[in-house]
Amino acid sequence: MEYVKHLENKNIKWRYSISVPFIYSMIIPLVFFDISTEIYHNICFRLYGIPLIKRSRYIKIDRHKLEYLSWYDKINCAYCGYGNGLMNYTQMIAARTEKYWCGIKHKKDDNFIEPKHHQEFADYDDEEDLKEKFNH
To answer: Are residues 85 and 33 in the same domain?
Structure first.
């Protein structure tokens, strides 16, 4: 397990100490991003008639309740639950926005990992598929 493997390295504490300001300073842009996304989500989705996405299905902060974790592990777990959950949540908001405005797949490219939500999109350069799927 990766978690256990990195704990076995005895010289890692100084690396953690150096990284802490970089990791935790990200809370500022994350919170700004969160607020901005919520404003967009609640205003634009209502205007477009797109059903709102339930935040609690994507952001889950519960691992800090595990009693066997140290206080700093609990903080780290809460932070990761928020940060990764927020990215997952906003990705879904962006995906539904993309589907609403432009439900067309990108041109096939072996160097591009197609997002799962593109499966429902019209094929690239297929006007009939677009008209059929999205009534354009």
So the answer is: yes
The structure tokens listed for 77 are 């777990």
Q: Does 107 fall in a domain?
A: yes
Query: Do 93 and 110 fall within a single domain?
Result: no
CA distance 34 to 92: 13
Which residues are 122's β-sheet partners?
104
Query: Which pLDDT belongs to residue 41?
Result: 98
In this prediction the pTM is: 0.82
| CA distances in angstroms from 117 to 34, 88, 94, 97, 129, listed in the order given | 21, 13, 10, 11, 16
Q: How many domains does the chain have?
A: 2
